[in-house]
Amino acid sequence: MDWLQRVRSALSGDAAPAVPAAAAKPTLRHSNGLRELTRAWQREEGLAILDLGPTSSANISYVSSLGQKVLHEDLLLASADSRFQISTENGPELNTAAFLAANLNYPADSLDGALLWDLLDYLPADTLQPLVSRLAQSFKPGGMALAYFHAVAEPTPQPRLRYHIHDAEHLELRAGPPLPIARALNNRAIERLFSDFRAIKFFLARDHLREVLVTK
Amino acid sequence: MTTSADFRGEGAVLGKTIQVQGELTGEEDLTIDGQLRGTIHLPNQRLTVGPLGKIQANVTARDLVVYGQLHGNVQVQDRVEIKKSGSVLGDMKLARISIEDGAYFKGNIDIQVKPAAAHAAAIAGSPAVASTALPAPAKPKPAGS
After folding, report:
1. Which of A10-19, A93-102, B8-17, B26-35 has the lowest mean pLDDT?
2. Under an 8 Å CB criterion, which residues of B touch A?
């Protein structure tokens, strides 16, 4: 099954097997990155914060509760749209130019922050740099983004996590249908990816999820 | 997922074969399971977009529930609910929001109530969170704590 089919299958809920009951139980995870973001976002109201993950009432309401404006688009779901697909020898692939022509369109210097969650682990390699560069162009100086990267690419697809903000420094993680990550980026590759940002901070954790906080 | 077979609309109903183009106003709750293109003005009522509903309109309502597709800007006095099968493309002004896992939304959200109450209300009303046995959400700590 090619990348596009895997994404569509998982996002539509058609993927088999379904999430095991034990894995479907939500877990609470401490987040140093979220704590730092919250501190920054508490200093000023009216910031424009973009959430690029699956829709979450908790996240929308939490960011709003800090007095910020929420913008939302689920980029992984958007990437599975057949309009952005091109046929190749290896099967259908994402047409990055067409995808970015229709998504992530924000004026330059208009965003104060973004929540990427683990989006970048699931997108094709060729799409990452153009996407992050586009995001950087839309950011105001000082704008901060939080992203998660898996440290290990498991041989069997693991449930994709949904990240719901629980409070200023905790996330509630809920497992969705299995979806393999495209690759596990090392720290150097992540630094290169965010080279348009002036600062990058890594937070390591025992659950093989690295938190990365970048500042333009 | 709610299907058209088990979905029951509330108030007046525009059925799945109905297509409307133009301005719609009223003083009773309305369910649209057909197609509408134009504007919808139900400032004191609940609008429900059924599983088969396809709306391309700017919407003013007291409450909005979306099982189907809505493309347009939304101004709602109280609560917006986007169900698992629902999708909304547009900017929304509202007081409270509930979005089920699997729902789709693209746009801006402007929540127009006291901020802390909005988060607490959404946590309490969110199916994704309400089903868990987690402790009550803590109020964000002040900077520097």
Report:
1. A10-19
2. 82, 97-99, 101-111, 115-116, 118-119, 121-123, 125-126, 128-129, 132, 134, 137-144
Residue B64 falls within a domain, yes or no?
A: yes
Which of B70, B46, B81 minimizes the C-alpha distance to B60? B46
What pLDDT, on a 0 to 100 scale, did the predictor assign at position A177?
87
Number of structural domains found in chain B: 1
Which whole number is the average pLDDT over A163-191?
94
**Residues contacting residue A177 through CB under 8 Å, at least 6 positions apart:** A9, A10, A11, A13, A15, A18, A19, A159, A160
Token pair 């996590």 is at which residue? A161
List domains and CATH numbers for chain A.
3-215 (3.40.50.150)
Average pLDDT of the residues of chain B: 80
Name the pTM for this structure: 0.82
Chain A residue numbers with beta carbons less than 8 Å from the beta carbon of B142 are 42
Nearest to B101 among A43, A62, A162 (CB): A162
Minimum distance, in Å, between the CA of residue B107 and any CA atom of chain A? 5
Residue B79 structure tokens: 């609560």
Calculate how close chain A gets to B106, using CA atoms only, in Å: 5
Q: Is the pLDDT of residue B116 over 60?
A: no
B67 assigned to some structural domain: yes
Whether chain B has a CB inside 8 Å of the CB on A105: the answer is no
ipTM of the complex: 0.78
